[in-house]
Amino acid sequence: VNVKAEEKTYTIGTDLTFAPFEYQNSSGTYIGIDVDLINAIAKDQGFKVDLKPLGFDSAVQAVQSNQADGMVAGMSITEERKKSFDFSDPYFDSGISMAVKEGNNSIKSYDDLKGKTVAAKVGTESATFLEKNQKKYGYTIKNFDDATGLYKSLENGETVAIFDDYPVLGYAITNGQALQLVGEKETGSAYGFAVKKGQNQELLEKFNAGLKNLKASGEYDKIINKYISTGK
Ligand code: GLN
């Protein structure tokens, strides 16, 4: 009897809310660029995905403790992370930016942050950026576990500025969140799919092969354009 080989299921960690890369629609289903991408790659490469929206830092921990096989979470490919992760080919260029509450015109540059409280999400490139520049600009840092707390902190005056990836801030503004970006964006690293260093190499290879196929077929562009309007 010929039985079709069972498709392997991989547990993939992701962020809780990082629109337009991963977020819930009105019926609670996870959607977004990362979600569509991993599902399309899984289909192309013949594996199944058990997506776990854990939060960014928790996904990092899950991969490192072997509770997840990999993570897709708008995760920047950094030299520091390469010590504990292996990354796929880059799939999206990004960078970080500062945002303040809409109408707050008193913060015009990092120099205006002296003595003020600023925030980012735990374990992110933005959090690292804030730590690195704290002495220089003299602000206090507050780190949040998830985007909900982070974005709320601006509204309730807990912080004067938040730092996040600019496509995510841009998406929030496009969707009516009362924010405004300040200054030039910081060049950041591109996003990559990640596995624990030295492990799940076959999954990494499948991701790269699938990504290549999606780019060649036009499906990759379709996914991006579904979430980020080019106005064309
Ligand atoms: N790109 C940023 C990082 O890798 C933020 C990722 C996220 O918040 N999901 O640190």
Structural class, by secondary structure, is alpha/beta
Radius of gyration: 19 Å
- Widest sheet: strand ordering: 9-8-10-7-11
**Strand composition percent:** 15-25%
Ordered list of secondary-structure elements with their pairings:
Layout: E1 9-14, E2 23-24, E3 30-31, H1 33-45, E4 48-53, H2 56-64, E5 70-71, E6 85-87, E7 95-101, E8 117-121, H3 125-137, E9 140-144, H4 147-155, E10 161-165, H5 166-174, E11 179-187, E12 194-196, H6 201-217, H7 219-227
Parallel strand pairs: 1-4, 1-5, 8-9, 8-10
Antiparallel strand pairs: 2-3, 6-12, 7-10, 7-11
Residues 15, 18, 56, 73-76, 94, 121, 124-125, 165 line the site of glutamine.
Description:
The chain has 232 residues and is of the alpha/beta class. The protein folds into two domains: 9-92 and 190-227, D-Maltodextrin-Binding Protein, domain 2 (3-Layer(aba) Sandwich); 95-187, D-Maltodextrin-Binding Protein, domain 2 (3-Layer(aba) Sandwich). The protein is built from seven helices and twelve strands. The protein has helices at residues 33-45, 56-64, 125-137, 147-155, 166-174, 201-217, 219-227; strands at residues 9-14, 23-24, 30-31, 48-53, 70-71, 85-87, 95-101, 117-121, 140-144, 161-165, 179-187, 194-196. Helix 3 links the parallel strand 8 and strand 9. Helix 1 crosses helix 6 (201-217). The mean pLDDT is 96. Residues 15, 18, 56, 73-76, 94, 121, 124-125, 165 line the site of glutamine (GLN).
